[in-house]
Design brief:
Length: 604
């Protein structure tokens, strides 16, 4: 029996390619290997646990003793220092619109063009601008913008182009494109950071005077300009300013590019002529369609309704007036002697009280009394809208359409700041910027599936980014466009060959960020936008209904013309009429059908 078992075991070993060792011994060997692997795994796991504990313990230190706390406080105080505004934005340049090379190029052109247009309008000059982009290498470009404005006096050139938060528009309550004095100096700073090259400026203040030429760099630690070159040169321009910046950038045509920005700028600035030289050298001219200079808005005092408590206290301390009555009348708009007395009576303050001695509790009473007193709405002389006629001319220059409709709403107020909303609608035709599409007409299928094109503007400046976050876009989506003959899905833009322009003009546009790309969702602003859209939309609805009737009439006429000959042949055979009789019957029948069709269309 034992011998048989051994033979079977040997046979099994031969069958599976094993050696001639007994099966029991191979099993023991396998168990030993498994046990050894388990031990190795346990050791590795223990080692990892030890390493984790070591790392965790390295993150913690023993608490500091009490006698060393004061020394540590002095050590920490030594690391604290003031941060320059230039240094902050150099590190956080994405806040100003310099977060990628393509957007940086657009932001630079935008800031320079805004400054040029503001300068020309303030001097009552019809703007003539030249915008150029030259490619130096795959990633490096030179950008220049030149205008025919009044120029900049010599001593102000370094501060304007080499210092952040330096300008004349921040404190002035009037409509302007720039507001903070950051834009063009930030563009120069971006160029310096990415290429190390200085900003080059030419400026000439009179036809007979020589031009001042500067090469500047911004000292980001001190927020001060460093003058690399200062010279007096001959320049063939009569007056004006030219700024040139070399930078790392990316040029690309299409939406959210420089080409698109300038085309949109031409729509809302029909009084300006813009010559554009892109990197490919193919010049494009946006001619002016309005020959009159824009009326410059007037600066106004803040309205009492828009002033918050802390600002009111600061204004009382800073005023040069000696009585409360004079303080309210001189420092605020729309406050007469009668209104000031009403406010003081409600606040239980005397008119002869010195505003410098105003306590915090008195300021709270005054602030509360202001909001309870009926005060006339702010003056709108600080806001200058484009106007319906000028807006339509600007639309016609860039958008080739079959129908145009514009609307300018009466002035309104948010947080005490005056604002006006303007809307323009263009329908049909070859659409927006047709020359980019080589003037090709779109098929009916393409037109049907095309979405509405939305162009947003604030103080005559195009807004090309963050569309879905903007109050203007949300107002369009919330409008029921089916009432005006357009197809629209819920929560989406309507479809069709439509271009819509929305412009907000205000002394202080409530942007959602420093890069000025989207308007905040103030209920007063959204309400006015919807009212303006409804006004222009009703005109579009009447036009589309007229187009529909014309198509139906043409279709009916085609039926009459198509079947009349067949009717004549049938009458001739059935009634045995002669040719002159058949013609007479057909003429009478056509007159009857035409009258019937006209009555039906007029009834609709």
């Amino acid at each position: 029996m034992a011998k048989k078992k051994v033979k079977v075991a040997k046979g099994q070993m031969e069958l599976f390619g094993g050696d001639e060792k007994p099966a029991s011994k191979s099993k023991k060997t396998t168990k030993k290997k498994v046990a050894k692997k388990k031990v190795v795994k346990k050791v590795a796991k223990a080692k990892k646990t030890t390493e984790k504990k070591a790392k965790a313990s390295s993150r913690h230190v023993d608490p500091i003793s009490e006698d060393k706390i004061e020394a540590k406080a002095h050590e920490m105080a030594g690391n604290q220092k003031e941060i320059s505004i230039s240094e902050f934005f150099a590190k956080n340049r994405h806040l100003l619109g310099f977060d990628n090379p393509r957007k940086a190029l657009l932001t630079t052109v935008k800031e320079a063009v805004d400054n040029s247009l503001d300068a020309c309008e303030e001097a009552h000059i019809l703007p003539d601008l030249e915008v150029g982009i030259k490619q130096l290498s795959e990633t490096r470009y030179t950008v220049w913008v030149q205008d025919n404005g009044p120029g900049i006096v010599k001593q102000q050139i370094p501060n304007i182009f080499g210092r952040l938060l330096y300008g004349s528009k921040f404190h002035a309550l009037k409509m302007s494109r720039g507001q903070q004095g950051i834009g063009i100096s930030a563009a120069g700073m971006y160029g310096l950071i990415t290429t190390g090259k200085s900003v080059k400026i030419h400026s000439k203040t009179g036809p007979r005077s020589k031009a001042h030429y500067y090469e500047l760099q911004i000292n980001t630690k001190k927020n001060k300009p460093e003058i690399i070159k200062d010279d007096v040169v001959e320049w063939d321009a009569r007056t004006g300013t030219r700024v040139e910046i070399e930078m790392v950038a990316k040029y690309q045509k299409g939406r959210q590019g420089v080409d698109e920005y300038l085309a949109q700028t031409a729509i809302v600035n029909p009084h300006a002529q813009i010559k554009y030289i892109p990197p490919d050298g193919q010049e494009r001219l946006f001619e002016r369609s309005v020959k009159k200079a824009v009326k410059s808005p007037k600066a106004v005092k803040p309205h009492p309704y828009g002033v918050e408590l802390g600002i009111l206290i600061k204004m009382a301390k800073d005023t040069s007036e000696k009585t409360m009555t004079a303080f309210l009348m001189k420092e605020f708009s729309r406050v007469s002697s009668k209104v000031s007395q009403q406010i003081l009576d409600k606040a239980k303050l005397t008119s002869r009280k010195n505003p410098h001695t105003l306590s915090h509790s008195d300021a709270e009473k005054l602030h509360e009394a202001i909001n309870k007193t009926k005060i006339m709405a702010p003056s709108t002389s600080c806001v200058e809208p484009i106007g319906q006629e000028a807006l339509e001319k600007g639309l016609e220059q860039v958008v080739q359409a079959d129908f145009y409709s514009t609307c300018t709403r009466p002035p309104n107020v948010y947080r005490g700041n005056p604002f006006q909303i303007e809307v323009g609608i263009a329908y049909g035709g070859s659409g927006y910027n047709a020359d980019i599409n080589n003037g090709k007409e779109k098929s009916e299928e393409e037109v049907e599936g095309e979405m509405m094109r939305v162009l947003r503007f604030a103080n005559r400046v195009p807004l090309q980014y963050q569309q879905s976050a903007c109050a203007t876009f949300q107002s369009i989506v919330q409008t029921n466009w089916r009432l005006y003959g357009l197809s629209q899905s819920r929560g989406a833009l309507p479809s069709g060959p439509v271009t819509v322009i929305i412009h907000i003009a205000s002394v202080w546009v409530p942007f959602t960020s420093e890069s000025k790309e989207a308007v905040a969702h103030y209920p007063e602003i959204i309400k006015e936008i919807k009212l303006a859209l409804s006004d222009a939309g009703r005109k579009l609805g009447r036009y589309l209904r007229g187009v529909k009737r014309a198509k139906e009439e043409a279709l009916k006429r085609s039926y009459i013309e198509k079947y009349m000959p067949a009717i004549g042949e049938a009458l001739k055979d059935i009634l045995a009429l002669k040719e002159p009789q058949v013609k007479k019957v057909l003429t009478n029948l056509e007159v009857v059908l035409e009258k019937s069709r006209t009555k039906q269309s007029s009834a609709k």
